[in-house]
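Input record, target 12 of the design panel.
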């Protein structure tokens, strides 16, 4: 059986969701948890934050991806070049 690990804690749920989506785009399943009383009291999420959770075996790769600078992402340099050219 596979365990899980809290990879990151974020102040805001939307930050955690962006990271989850990024990992999903790289083939790593992740999910976001937040103690907000089952969405009954969303303000609790502001106080307690949100956790990004991944499987144990994906933790090292997910951490590596999240630590990489944006320019290290495939295609990132092309996007910057296009913006500089006005494309």
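The sequence produced for target 12 reads:
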């Amino acid at each position: 059986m596979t365990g899980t690990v809290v990879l990151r804690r974020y102040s805001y749920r939307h930050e955690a969701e962006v990271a989850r989506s990024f990992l999903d785009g790289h083939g790593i399943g992740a999910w976001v948890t937040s103690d907000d009383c089952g969405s009954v009291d969303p303000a609790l999420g502001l106080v307690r934050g949100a956790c990004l959770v991944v499987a144990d075996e994906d933790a090292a790769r997910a951490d590596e991806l999240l630590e990489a600078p944006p320019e290290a992402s495939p295609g990132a340099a092309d996007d910057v070049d296009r913006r500089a050219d006005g494309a």
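Residues 4-84 form a domain with the Alpha-Beta Plaits fold (CATH 3.30.70).
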